[in-house]
Specification:
Elements: H1 11-17, H2 21-29, H3 31-52, H4 57-63, H5 69-84, H6 87-94, H7 101-123, H8 130-162, H9 167-194, H10 200-213, H11 216-221, H12 237-242, H13 244-250, H14 252-266, H15 274-282, H16 288-313, H17 316-336, H18 342-368, H19 374-402, H20 405-432
Helix pairs in contact: 3-9, 3-10, 4-5, 5-8, 5-19, 6-8, 6-19, 7-8, 7-10, 8-19, 9-10, 9-16, 9-18, 14-19, 14-20, 16-18, 17-18, 17-20, 19-20
Length: 441
């Protein structure tokens, strides 16, 4: 397979092309194989995620064990904190290694062990006190997401390097597949939630989560990795962290991007409570939770190719402004919705924003990262967002406890509107102080 034309290369790969032409040729040789392997991984993960969705299914599960909105808000907070906070550590653990696959495999097996533990904990829900079940489950749930967080930087860099051309299209198609299969998973979860009373319904749901996660192990074992050619010295964790400050000083555009993203993330305060609010306000069937999940995943899937195409052809400025406007529309519609049917649109817009996060965020990060530091910058960006992602649901839960669901929805709308203003300010600044972005245009 021929080496891609220089103009077609992603910016970080272009920086390596002249120095390591054989490396680039090997990446391109395995590109289609690894793309196909990702199809299997993304599809099965979508089924698992449909059963573990932190914004719909998990808050409903926790609400069956406690009525405390602050605790209910902890379920997505735990997921997001677990997934994002350890990512800098995950980046460090592979920083000096030429290969990512052995590390990915180890964590993938541990994830399946934790899924099995969650299933076993749910089996004891009828015989054990609700507080014990809830504490044990949330602990296992946090560990699962923390393992996922540790795997994301090396896994993301694997594909950042092994898909040297058409990366936005790849991310878009990945999210399209993920959302499409996720809709099927949501339909299965809906059937499982309505087929038996609590807790038997969730025994079935978490059993499905465990079984659906097993085929992805085949994908991980069949990744074709080309070792990174540059030798990076082994560092202590302290030295690795000490290098961060000069790296950030040398890449101020990345810092500004992270600050902008932080405001947009805080605009998601009410997302974990949307389904519970709709169920309570309009007296809906519990199976509606899975319907909302399916709509969210379907919209995420349908929007993915569009975001992927735009991330390859648009400047990141325009992409993030559109994403911020969609988030405001979702928050405003949720706050004003006079009937349950409106929430179908609300969750569709949530899916569109999640699709933007899944494509535009990594694409922008890759474009603003030094070629040899992609893993570290992925970890830096996501670790920064972790506490903010966790803070949002906790604040939302506190507002629900102290005031009402509508107070949380109103706060989310205000912060989302602030996010639009921040994105506009970010764009103005970057145009006055131009830095190399994902694409020029």
């Amino acid at each position: 397979m021929s080496v891609p034309a220089q103009a077609d290369l992603a910016p970080d790969i272009e920086a390596l092309a002249d120095q390591y032409p054989e490396y680039l040729a090997a990446l391109n040789h395995n590109r289609r194989w690894n793309w196909g392997i990702n199809v299997l991984d993304s599809g099965t993960f979508a089924l698992t995620k449909a059963a573990l969705t932190e914004t719909t299914v998990l808050p409903y599960f926790v609400s069956q064990l406690t009525s405390n909105a602050l605790v209910i808000g902890l379920s997505p907070a735990i997921a997001w904190l677990g997934m994002y906070l350890p990512q800098l550590l995950g980046a460090y653990l592979v920083h000096s290694q030429a290969r990512r696959k052995p590390y990915i495999l180890t964590l993938a097996w541990l994830e399946r062990a934790i899924l099995l533990a969650m299933f076993v904990i749910t089996l004891g829900a009828e015989r054990l006190p609700a507080g014990v079940v809830l504490a044990a489950f949330l602990a296992a749930y946090f560990i699962y997401w923390a393992l996922l967080g540790l795997i994301i930087p090396p896994y993301s860099e694997f594909y950042a390097k092994h898909i040297p051309v058409g990366r936005g299209r790849f991310l878009g198609m990945q999210t399209l597949l993920y959302g499409g299969v996720g809709v099927v998973g949501a339909a299965v979860v809906q059937r499982l939630l309505t087929s038996a009373p609590f807790p038997a319904s969730f025994v079935h749901v978490f059993g499905f989560a465990f079984l659906s996660a097993l085929p992805a192990l085949i994908a991980f074992h069949n990744l074709r990795e080309v070792p990174f050619p540059g030798q990076r010295p082994r560092q202590t964790l302290r030295a690795y962290l000490a290098d961060i400050r000069p790296l950030l000083r040398a890449n101020p555009a990345f810092v500004r991007f992270c600050l902008m993203r932080g405001v947009l993330v805080l605009g998601k305060i009410s997302v974990p409570f949307l389904a519970l609010y709709a169920l309570q306000r309009f007296s809906l069937d519990p199976g509606t939770v899975a319907v909302y999940t399916g709509i969210m995943l379907a919209a995420q899937s349908a929007a993915a190719p569009i975001w992927g195409y735009l991330s390859d052809h648009w400047h990141a400025h325009r992409l993030w402004l559109v994403a911020a406007l969609v988030q405001v529309a979702q928050a405003a519609l949720a706050f004003a919705a006079p009937g349950p049917a409106w929430f179908y649109v609300v969750f569709a817009l949530v899916g569109v924003t999640l699709s933007a996060d899944a494509t535009a965020h990594p694409q922008t990060t890759y474009g603003l990262s030094p070629a040899a530091e992609t893993t570290r910058f992925i970890g830096l960006g996501n670790t920064f967002l972790g506490p903010l992602l966790a803070l949002g649901p906790v604040v939302g839960g506190a507002l629900v406890n102290s005031y009402s669901y509508r107070a949380a929805l109103g706060a989310s709308l205000v912060v989302a509107a602030l996010g639009v203003a921040v994105v506009i300010g970010w764009i103005v600044w970057e145009r006055r102080h131009p830095a190399r972005m994902v694409t020029e245009g």
